[in-house]
Amino acid sequence: MLKENVQEGINEQIRHELYSAYLYLSMSAHFEDQFWKGFAHWMRLQATEELKHALRLFDFVLRRGGLPTLKPIDQPPASFTSPLDIFQRALEHERTNTGAINQLFELAISEKDYPTRVEVEWFITEQVEEENTAEEIVERAKLAGDDRGALLLLDQQLGGRTSSD
Ligand code: MG
User: Fold this and answer.
1) At how many degrees (to 10) do helices 114-144 and 4-33 cross?
2) Please, which residues have CB within 8 angstroms of residue 160's CB and are 6 or more apart in sequence?
3) How many angstroms is it from 79 CA to the middle of ligand 1?
4) CA-to-CA distance for 98 and 123, rounded, in angstroms?
5) Proportion of the chain above pLDDT 90, given as a percent
C-alpha cells in the first residue's frame, strides 16, 4: 500500500509527464506550421514518449493499490522562435524534470518505500538519456547556426526517428 505522501508525489510526477507531452506537442505544432517536418515528427514522438511515462506511473500507482489523481495541466507556450531556441527550451525542461524525479527518489528513500524507489530508478536512467539526446541536438543546431542547408539536414535526420521510447 502506498503512503499518502508518496502517492501524492507520484501523482505530481504524472502531471509533470503529461505537461511534458503537452509541451512537446505544442513544439511539434509550431514546427509543422513552419514546415520543419522532421523536427515536428521528432517532437510528436517525444510527446508520445512522455505520455507513456505518465501511463507507466499511473499503472504503478494502481498496482500498489493507490489512486492516480489527475491534476490540471498548465497551458504550454505556443509561440517559439528558432529551432535552436526550441531545443534549448526542451533541454531546460528535461533538466527541470530530472530535478523532480530526483526529489521523488529522495521521498521514496526517506519513506523507505522500496518498490517506488526501484520504479523511480528507471526514470533516473531515462533522464540521463533524455538530457543527453537534447544536449546533442542543441549542440548540432548550434553548429548549423544560420545555415539553412545545415538545419534542413538536421531536420531530415531527426525526421528519421522511428521509436517513441
Ligand atoms: Mg518523461
Assistant:
1) 20
2) 38
3) 22
4) 9
5) 98
DSSP classification of residue 36: -
Compute the distance from residue 4 Cα to the ligand 1 centre, in Å: 23
Closest CA to 10 of 90, 84, 66: 66
pTM of the model: 0.95
Could you tell me if 144 and 154 are in contact, meaning their C-beta atoms sit under 8 angstroms apart? yes
Residue 164 C-alpha cell reads as: 517513441
Which tens digit of pLDDT belongs to each residue from 44-60?
A: 999 999 999 999 999 99
Which ranges of the chain does DSSP label H, i.e. alpha helix? 4-33, 37-63, 83-110, 114-144, 148-158
3-23 in b/e form (b: 16+ CB < 10 A) is beebbebbbebbbbbbbbbbb
What's domain 4-158's superfamily in CATH? Ferritin, core subunit, four-helix bundle (1.20.1260.10)
Q: How many CB atoms lie within 10 A of CB 34?
A: 14
Task: State how far the Cα of 60 lies from the Cα of 66, in Å rounded to an integer.
Answer: 9
Q: How confident is the model at residue 136 (pLDDT cuts 50, 70, 90)?
A: very high
- Cα(143) to ligand 1 centroid in Å equals 27
